[in-house]
Amino acid sequence: MATSNTAPAKAPIFGHSLRRQFLFPENYTNLNHGSFGAIPAPILTHRQKLHILSEQHPDNFMRYHSISLLDESRAAIAKLLNVPSEEVVFVTNATTGVNIVLRNLVYEDGDVILHFGTIYGACGRTVQYIADTTPATCISIPLAYPVLDASIISSFNTTVQEIKAAGKNPKLVIFDTVSSMPGMRFPWEKMIVAAKEAGVLSLIDGAHGVGNIKIDLGANQPDFFVSNCHKWLYAPRPAAVLYVPTRNQPLITTSVPTSHYYIPKSAAQYWSPLSPGSKSNFTLQFEFNGTIDATPYLCVPAALKFRQDIGGEDAIIKYCNDLAFEGGETVAKILGTEIMAPDPAAVDGGRCPMINIRLPLLPIPKTEVESVYNTFTKEVGVRENTFVQVYVHNSHWWVRISAQVYLEMKDFVWIAGVLKKECENINERTKNMSATATVTGEKADMVGADVHVEEVKDAKKVVNGMGDLKVSETEREPVAVKG
After folding, report:
1. What is the pLDDT of residue 463?
2. C-alpha span between 233 and 210 (Å, rounded)
3. 188 with 102, same domain?
4. Which end of the chain is less congested by CB atoms within 10 angstroms, N or C?
């Protein structure tokens, strides 16, 4: 039997010992990695070296060196996604990728864009823009957690049948890998299959995708996919990968913004300072569409190497999944509530590195919703040197916490104590307001329902306040919530 001289790999060491690899001050606890990500110090150093190169020889770097580095980055991310490098390009963020796809498709009378009620706010607004400026209409499929994956797929199939029965064409469905708020793993693999069977194009918003969960696009073959690299993959901001399989690249006729490599439908020809090269038009359009700082894209191989050095993709994802779930259960126990339970029959048990825990809050007057939100996100965040996302979903207040390799269980125990004390303070204020209202005879309008507001406009079912859009019911004005 052959023997190996290779020493067994050391078990990865995650937790506070890895904090020194990141740039957080000693007194800061980052519990919201999911919104904007965080880069390790070696990646920052690598980016700074690229900046120096770009300033030492601007033309050589922009015209030649950066292009070869970009090819290496595309090859690296393509390998992770299990697709050819010719089918991936880089864009600034997932919202931009969604816009590129939606704005390139051609819509006709009767076309319908479908999405779920948990769509990210900016993407939901983009769908509304398309509905406002093209013949297409849009339909939001209600989604309230906890829910089984099978019910989600069933809701989609039923909606498609209703659209077809009305003589319309379900053209495209948008869905997440992991939704933002609630931070829940979506059955995206099953949805791809359901969309194909229904003859509907699939556009996956994988903002919380690469580095967060296992992604195999080669096996699942969606029609369009975009994922941030700066959230969970440790690449600098802003960086995202857009996947368009060769079969669908003719549908993407222009980058956003349109630039030198766009091919006009007319015979008009325009001089371009760029070499025509041998790459596909799809690759070329996104290779250069205006001068930007592309160094975040060029750091993807370094980010992947860092991840490999500290334990590898599987180990990172497992640690974060386990910490999120076990930490969330611990927080819920301290608060006397529960986590937003995933479908146990889902892929990986429905787990991801984000966990949602119900906050023990009394029904709150609608006039106080904004104040309560700011209390948690701003006042507590600044005072305690941290940040947590809070939101209302399915008649309850929830907090979303992100697990990461530099965190440990004690961080979850600590934030649980902070949240418990703050909830007690808010409940006391709520009781006092209720007592005052009773004395004065006023009837308070209480919030216990979703802050999402549905509007029906021109016979279209449109959701105002989708995903991360928190709406003050009293003012009916949407307030954007990032991340």
Report:
1. 31
2. 6
3. yes
4. N
Q: What is the pLDDT of residues 247-302, one digit of tens each?
A: 999 999 999 999 988 988 886 666 666 666 679 999 999 998 889 999 999 999 99
pLDDT at 307: 98
The two beta strands, 446-447 and 364-365, are antiparallel
Residues 70, 185 share a domain: yes
CA distance 258 to 261: 8
Q: What is the model's pLDDT at position 269?
A: 66
Could you give the number of structural domains in the chain? 2
Rounded Cα gap, residues 90 and 407, in angstroms? 30
pLDDT at position 77 = 99
Other CB atoms within a 10 A radius of the CB of residue 6 amount to 6
Q: Cα separation of 118 and 36, whole Å? A: 19
Do 114 and 226 belong together in one domain? yes
The answer to whether 29 touches 411, Cβ cutoff 8 Å, is yes
Does residue 396 sit in the same domain as residue 414?
Answer: yes
- Both 373 and 429 in one domain: the answer is yes
Say if residue 219 is in the same domain as residue 357.
no
In a domain, 470, yes or no: no
Q: What is the pTM of this model?
A: 0.88
Q: In this predicted structure, what is the pLDDT of residue 3? A: 38
Q: Tell whether 426 and 284 lie within a shared domain.
A: no
* CATH number of domain containing 382: 3.90.1150.170
Q: Which residues of the chain have pLDDT under 70?
A: 1-11, 267-277, 434-483
361, 284: one domain = no
Domain boundary residue, one of 303, 331, 355: 303
Residue 43 forms part of a structural domain:
no
